[in-house]
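For reference, the entry.
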Amino acid sequence: MKKFTFLIPVFNDWDSLNILLERIDQEISSFEDIFDVVILNDGSTVKNSIKNKNFKKIHLIKVLNLKKNLGSQRALAIGLKHLSDTGKETNIILMDADGEDDPNILKKIIDYSKKFPNKIITVNRTKRNENLFFRFMYEIHYLFTLLITGKKVRFGNYSLINSNKLKKLLSKGDLWGAYPAAILNNYTDIEPLFHERKKRNIGKTKMNLIKLLFHSLRIISVFNKRVYFASIIYIFFFILIYFIYSNILFLLLIFLIIFFNIIIFKISINNKKEYLDNYIKFVENVDTVH
């Protein structure tokens, strides 16, 4: 019998969360393992409400109420640090609250974790359900990240990691930037699953192009050393091409690369381990609701 803990950030989306919890409880019904849930209330302005207090398989639900909205990535970082500090071994399943992370594959994730106990299980997206333009821009974000970092970031929060692996992940500030980037920057023992991203349980997606841009920059900032190295190579290449063709376009490209690196540097200096070490200052209180 193993212990599993769902780690779910939420900002005002309590109706979707309640649907998700019901579905999780159904999907894990065939397992004899112990299942807890830690909800990260990311500074919601709507009063939290867990409607069902009588789940069949979910053993315990705790809510970490954060003092202010930090965004899902930093809320997850706080949640992982909190679980690490408890000192109890558990398999942590990270999910979004809106239902886009499909609970139907939880059985497969749990089975994979037992088959590959020393690996991190990630759910890599095969299909998205946003409009065509947003999907196109997401592919641009993916390709640009690959070009500048050499890393394929095809998964989001939906994943499973054993708490025994958290020491390395929490040893620096990568998590404060972006969870998937932190995983790829620190581990190679990853076992991917492939599954489409579903539609929200209720309402429309909160992701837009502005949020996608900032999310992309935070992911890239975690790989800042790779970015600086790749940028030097690109700059030398464009300088060489400029001397051959004397085209001002290549000087403009060099300027854009330098400007981009300044942005990444400014973002990366905020990825501080001390925020994780002192995570408790971001927590208002902890409620037990089930």
